[in-house]
Amino acid sequence: LRSFPNDAYAQHCKVVALIRQDRFHDCIDFLQKHQIDDYHLERAYCEYRLNRLVEALKTISSCTVVTQGLIELRAQIYYRLEEFERAIEEYEQLLKSCKDDYQDERQANLIAAKAALSCFLGKDVALNYSPALFETAFNAACYYIGKKDYTKALKFLNEAESTVVFHRIRPFVELCTEAFEDDTDATEEQINEEVAPISSLLLGKLASDDQVYFVMVQKGFVLQQQQKTDIAFEIYHTILRQRSGDPSLMVIVSNNLICINKDQNVFDTRKRIKASSIDDLHHKLFQAQRSSILTNQALFYFNTNQLDACDAKLKAVLNEDSNNVRATMLSAVSFFKSKQPAAGVRLLENFAKSPAFEEVDKEGRLAAILLLVHLQLMAISGVSLGSTPTAPLRAGKLTTEVADALSERILAKLLPQDIAMLPLVASLRVALLLGAGTEETNCVSDVALKRAKGIVSETLEFWSKRSSDVRFTLVFSHVL
Questions:
Q1: Which keywords belong to this entry (predicted)?
Q2: Does pTM top 0.70 for this prediction?
């Protein structure tokens, strides 16, 4: 390059050499210095490795001829940007158009995108699984975890674990077995006895393999979801003792232990919070994972009355994910605990009226609105927030006007119709109206009674038009 600085072949060799040495900044600087615009794949790959994902996507888009390599990279960028459906489209296109030796890897990546779509966005898409690699089985397990089918998830985790053991140990066992080929007198049993200690040693080495750790963590999570927390606890501590080399894995283990500890074992939880710092792992965790970790830490601080620390964690979550229901609800309750009830109510009301609320799933919407009603009743009664806020209303504090406002302005207006007509919500609306003013008058007002009857009629009419819910309608009618 000193003699022929514009030699294209020499330039390309240097670009490849810099990439092989992980000198991505130097590679981009070299391309810019020599004003080389032809190497779209190399430049985009460097930007991808430097976590400049949007820039990498722009570099690929600027290329007039999109090669197979660019499509592969674009699919991975979409995955990292959490645009999982686009990643799925790219991998499906590659699987149809390519006929090389990398189809198993593409299939594993496709299943990873489907698993992420299932776990983090709750969307259902066909798996189309065929066994191939460790990653294929492991990603299939993650897919079923997202669907909360923990029995199938365990099946695929066991398959992934067996794949690791088989592929890592088999070459050594075969080599040892070949040593007995000239010994015609050696029986199969004798050969197995000689090989067994070597297999055991290799299995012991595999216990510290990161792939095995990932399987163990997912098994721990599945058992945790199945309420087998004692076994999950032991699995997590085994991983901590053996110390995986992957920092993101250790953060996830620490977070899961925080969930098991809850507000018990405060000393251990403080250690886990320190170990689950995500400051340097922004690009190794998905947004849902980061939000979950920070919200769990906030919940611990809330339960131990460290409200400033709690609010700081929640602020970090909401800055990145404004429609996070758990963080918003916990923020509202934190306001109540710090004796700012009006701020807590206002926060939830604004959230329920914001565009972000439209993106929340039905379960999250219902939880947020029910909490809003609960906090409104607490504010009306002047009840302070204790550790178990289960009885927010003092007798005689609820007027017919307030009950009607809670029923119509919040429960009926802020919830979609199919949720507002659920028996849970309809019963609550009726209970609010029938419970208004009973302490002073000892009877239900005509206005409240009329409103309550109207809610019952609306609900019955709504469900009677849905043939699949006829049984519910009859039961609801009988109860009322």
A1: Coiled coil
A2: yes
